[in-house]
Amino acid sequence: MKVHGQCHCGDIRFEAEVDPANARICHCTDCQTMSGSAFRTGISAPAETLRMISGTPVRYIKTADSGIQRAHMFCGRCGSPVFSSAIDENPTRYQLRIGMLKERHELVPKAQIWTKSEQHWLGEIADFPATETQ
Questions:
Q1: Which end of the chain is more exposed for a tag (fewer CB within 10 A), N or C?
Q2: In what order do the strands lie in the sheet with 40-46?
Q3: What tens digit of pLDDT does each residue of 56-74 get?
Q4: Minimal CA–CA distance to 82: which of 69, 70, 96?
Q5: Alpha helices of the chain — where are they, by DSSP H?
Q6: Whole-angstrom distance, CA of residue 50 vs CA of residue 15
Q7: Residue 84 in contact with residue 95, Cβ under 8 Å?
Q8: How far is the C-alpha of 59 from the C-alpha of 82, rounded, in Å?
Q9: Cα–Cα distance for residue pair 82/80, rounded to 1 Å
Q10: Which of 21, 33, 110 is nearest to 65 (CA)?
Q11: In 3-state terms, what secondary structure has residue 131?
Q12: What is the CATH number of domain 2-119?
């Protein structure tokens, strides 16, 4: 499936090919911190399918508790996280942030990782009071 992504301000624009079955939720504490939320949703894209249309993301190298390093790319203007990859000069895959994709409503996560860090209240979210707008 072809997807189209952009940051909040529109400076970074890209497209890629993904398999919708690979959409997942990550509950690790790094994803919570870097997303400013309880989890982050992502989908893997083969590197050869990623095409930058405009802009150049800023690169931040994060070293995990395990010692493994990941390159996190984000917009230098609006700060939107765009994707991550191995720190190799030519990574084989990119982990796209589903929230950046126009087709996000079609990319329903099929798996969860790092559930040991999941926020305890997520299972109750359907019972929270809700309004359609602010």
A1: C
A2: 58-63, 69-74, 81-86, 93-97, 40-46, 24-26, 111-113
A3: 999 999 998 788 899 999 9
A4: 96
A5: 29-35
A6: 6
A7: yes
A8: 10
A9: 6
A10: 33
A11: coil
A12: 2.170.150.70
Neighbour-count burial of 15, counting CB atoms closer than 10 A to its CB (0-12 exposed, 13-18 middle, 19+ buried):
middle
CA distances 74 to 21, 60, 118, 126, 131, Å, are 25, 8, 24, 31, 31
Q: Look up tokens 């690979």; give the residue.
A: 22
Q: How far, in Å, CA of 118 to CA of 37, rounded?
A: 11
**pLDDT score, position 21:** 96
Give the pair of three-digit tokens for residue 65: 């508790």
Spatial separation of the C-alpha atoms in residues 116 and 98, rounded to whole Å: 22
Burial of 109 from C-beta contacts in 10 A (0-12 / 13-18 / 19+): middle
**pLDDT tens digits, 88-99:** 888 999 999 999
What number is the average pLDDT over the span 35-45? 94
Give phi and psi for 123, each to the nearest 5: -65, -15
